[in-house]
Amino acid sequence: MKTKFFLILLLLAAINLNQPWAQTPDDSVKIALQEMKDRLDGISENVATLNSDVSILKWVKISGYIQARYEYNDSSQNGVTGGYDVSKNLNANNFYIRRGRIKFTVQPGSASKYVIYFDASKNTVSLKEAYVELYKNIEKHNLTLTFGQFNYPFGYEIEYSSSKRDFPERSLAENNLLKGERDRGVNLTWVLPKYLQVNAGLFQGYGIEDKNFTWFDPTKAKDVIGRAKVKLGAVDFGLSGYWGKTYFPGSAAVSGVTIWYDANVNGIIDAGEIKTSAPRAAVPAVEKDKIRYGADAQVYLDFLPLGGTGIRGEYYQAKDNDKDERGWYFWVSQNIFTRFGAAARYDYWDPNTDSNAKNDATGTLSLALHYFWDSYVRITAAYYIPHQLKENSLFTKYSGDRKDNRFTLQFQFMF
Amino acid sequence: MKKLLIPSIILVLSVATGLSVFAGKTITVKGSDTLLILGQRWAEIYMSQNPGVVIQVTGGGSGVGIAALINGSTDICEASRPIKPSEIDKLKERFNTTGVEIPVARDGISIYLNEENKVSELTLDRLKGIYTGKITNWKELGGEDAKIVLYGRENSSGTYVYFKENVLTGADFASQTQTLPGTAAIVNAVAKDKYGIGYGGAAYSKGVKYCKVKKDSQTPGYEPTLENVKSGKYPISRYLYWYLRNKPTGEIKKLVDFVLSEQGQQIVSKVGYFPVK
After folding, report:
1. B88-98 pLDDT, tens per residue?
2. Which chain A positions have a beta carbon within 8 Å of B15's beta carbon?
3. Which A positions 385-404 lie with beta carbon below 8 A of chain B?
4. Out of 3.30.70.100, 3.90.180.10, 3.40.190.10, 3.40.50.720, which CATH number does the structure's domain B25-106+239-271 have?
């Protein structure tokens, strides 16, 4: 009996030794710690993988803005042209979306960047920009090669984003000379940090809003654009040049035609029953010089307790289709603490400096007030007073000036 | 038209004025994580001496602080790198100003190694080799045969930008660099990782050892001490900045004067950085 009891005890002890609960409290803690460490290692591996995945998302930056407007025009009338042509609205008092922009930027490192930029406004979606940038630093010299569809490297107004500008629209000169502000081409930028930036590029020359040459260029040679900008802290200034050609398509020759018809059926062709259209000679296509020169300067002053004061000016001289053109603006902008701003601009545009027609040139006084709702929203009230100028005058308005003042109330959200 | 214009302007202005927050004596300070502790110390002492003034100090990185200065969401930006020309351009566009730069302290960018690491000094060239991924094993540097584990900052950090421009001379960081959200996190990681290496401000050096840095193989190595940073012997030192949109006035001017005062600069030394005066 004793032997049996002893054997049973021995067996139980042996079984117990093989069980984990036979371990000491220290062993349990060690095992628990090891388990915890293994779990943490597992989580660390997962986090490392997650970090790697998330870091790819950091390559992508999405930005954009919306400009929702109400516009009131002195020239507005009810109806459409002739009462039937619905494509020509006589009323210009409207709520509308002027710009609805979204930009996707992908930058995987410091050597390259990809950008695609869309605009959705006035019921259409269009591609504004799509380009690749390559970066190369050679000591203190930074080089950027841009290839695709992007801003013309010309003048100050273009490089100043519409989302930041004081006035809802750029000057008349810029709107006429560099319509759409963008084109397809290649541009090399050389930056000597802080002080100097030089751009030189080749472009199609028709911009992104040309109705005839939407994506192709009828001339083999490309337009050349160059710009140099000097930054001296509170004073910046730049010079720009554009040398290109504009192709004007001709028209085919038209044969002269004589037709007759015996309308009164009297068996004789009367004089009134013969109609002759004159032949037209072919009009050959021509290429005309397209030249633009620009000079701009900006001064930033910090002397008023209200906030910063910006003074900006730009001059354009151009030649298109054998006509000389000239434009300029002078623009003063004042910040009023953090949330307010006010600005005034006078801009001048003469599409034909050789002509002294009474309503040839236009001078526009623009006034704007801003309220910055938060970091993203800006509310702007702007008033435009355009007037046709007397011959050879920069400011005196022509007595037959049109009734065309315009008021704009704009809400902008930018992110 | 004029009938519409004037009421509209009055409407915009009155709504704006009614909703505008001219936050009296609340000053916001945002930016560099390197400067975060120092900024908090300044704020604590200034607020204790000027009851009624509230200073909110937050980090996020120099880039985040400068972005906040540009979009108007902070009064003062703390930055561990100089503002970039492209950022000044944005200030010009939004605020018609070039900004005001105030150096408030000096810092030696410290190279952190685990205390058990046999390596104790590195040249700038070797540091570049390590962080660009050309040198991958401590054995190549006189240490153990073990893979080098790289810790670094996110690209919004001024320390990241400074290190990239001045140590890597513009080259990209190796892809295996583990990015961490603050210098404290880097020190913590290196303290736990025998084969880790990290970089950051001098104020965050607990639990790790400083690596001496040599300009080249011919010159001696130096630690980021006050003497070495001031004398320029330590090769990777920099200014730390405050940036404002406009010339300081009112309470912000008083705060800036305090930071640059003897008392303010003593706080700089206590936190572990180097005074500018």
Report:
1. 999 999 999 99
2. 371
3. none
4. 3.40.190.10
